[in-house]
Prior knowledge:
Layout: E1 2-6, H1 11-21, E2 25-29, H2 42-52, E3 55-60, H3 75-96, E4 100-109, H4 121-137, E5 146-151, H5 156-161, H6 172-184, E6 191-193
Parallel strand pairs: 1-2, 1-3, 3-4, 4-5, 5-6
Keywords: Oxidoreductase
Family: Belongs to the short-chain dehydrogenases/reductases (SDR) family.
InterPro entries: SDR_DHRS6-like, SDR_fam
Amino acid sequence: MKILAIGATGTIGGAVADALAARHEVVRASRRGPVRVDMADAASIDALFTQVGEVDAVVCCAASGGLTPLDAPSDTDFWNGLDGKLIGQVNLVRRALTHVRAGGSVTLTSGRFAEPIPGSSLGYLVNAGLEAFVHAAATEMPRSVRLNAVSPGWVRETLLSLGMDPAPGTPVTEVANVFMEAVEGTAHGRTLTVGTS
Length: 197
């Protein structure tokens, strides 16, 4: 299969692209590098598909912002997470409809926190909205194209890079395996939660 992997320079995206590349042709896209995309810019997503052409699958592992307090300095600061992670991935699905071959798939990334913490309300909103979108939009996907989300939770390597206790994190290779399951399996309209998929 020819697979477009977005966010391929990140911790999760790099591991997912590497795992997929063992069996498939992978086009790696990110904000930097030869194949570029800005998920907050719909025109950039259009340009990406013009450059890449038809694919069998799209996997989006693009990173989102961190914790955002309710009293963020401005509305723009607070709502930035909607543009890239939620609206960006919705725009990606809408544009992928004409570029993913019949029987292919689109896999998005949501997320989760172990429990609500200060600054997590926007993240909860974005992730819940994305998962609801996947569930509903799956009924509208043409040509048997499958749509799913993966909810990775904390990743061990990310916690290490932040200087935090890595114990509650899942190794990135296990996270990549769930993305592989979404691409190569038969799931449709589901959120695959790492550790329980």
